[in-house]
Amino acid sequence: MSGMTYDEFKRHLGKANLSAKEFAGLLRLSPNSVTNYARTGDVPAHLAVIAALMGEMADHRLDFKPVLATLDIEPNKRRGTGFGASRQISLQLQKGS
Q: How many other CB atoms are found less than 10 A from the CB of residue 58?
């Protein structure tokens, strides 16, 4: 079960005056990992909660950015290297006898 629809997610980001790319940057996520949820239409619960809280804080004129700036969030590691960019290893082949 998803956290919320991507449209609702974008509405919360709009209340917080953030784009999906800016949201990703604040959380040290790849922008593509956030915008890819538009394809499925659903956003995971953990990102939905964060976006909803940011929207509510902005509604109450509470600035959430300084709070996030104090956190030592490590960026997500890239999962793959992409098509055709896999690591290559050197094989030493022996000629047959």
A: 18
